[in-house]
Specification:
six-stranded mixed β-sheet, 46% helix, two-stranded antiparallel sheet
Length: 273
Amino acid sequence: MFKAVLCTPGNEQILKEFIERILKRKFKTFKIISPELTKNNIYEKGKYLDVLIKTDNLFVNIEVNSHNYNGLSERNFSYIALVYASHIKVGEEYNNDLDFIQINLTVGLGTKMPEISISKVINKETLKLKVRNLEIYDVNLDKINSRCYNEDDEYNFLKMMTASKEELEFLAEKGDNFMKKIKDEVNRINDENYFANFISVEEDERKIRNTYYANGVEEGEARGERRGEKRGEKRGKENALIETAKNLLNLGISIEDISKGTGLSKQKIASLK
């Protein structure tokens, strides 16, 4: 629903307000940047950024995750790290006027995590910011959906992301004009048969898994034999971690911290410089 409705041409204002409500700030300018412009250096073959927006002096990358799995955080971080590395440097200088935010909308985080948590790159010894202009917002759709309905709940609009048709109608009826716009757009797209071929959760998981390990699997699968698949998955994981490590090096993260986060050896990471 998110990409089909909020990213449909003509719905820029809906997407703008959607982001403004999450970040709790207003924007003067707003432009959706084609994800294809940023795909060239992404290791995951065929994977584009879900959404990339340029607004005022801020880049916002949105990733929609239908489930949580081991390695998801690293995968998502590699995308915003790529956007950061691609835009922060201007000629021989670094542009200190730009800010970067990633919004991860995720199902599967459980209800123990907060509705929205904000992560920053800090020095673990001094607790001071290491990277001033980079933030990651993790939106926990499980926690939000577990909240009893309250018409004054600021997160009601986020419940619409995973709502059934009946729930969508209820939320729109009880909600504000913004939520009614989302419901009307969902109905319009449904009427035009844009949603004719939903994929199941199982198929979505399979597609993500196949994409995530694509390069390794292509080399190791041997017509789907289990042993080949395992070899391919192992290589795909290793190469994805290497790409993440490269992005972290570009952000100035220490080799020791990168080693702890990725599991790669310090020697391996040092060789990537």
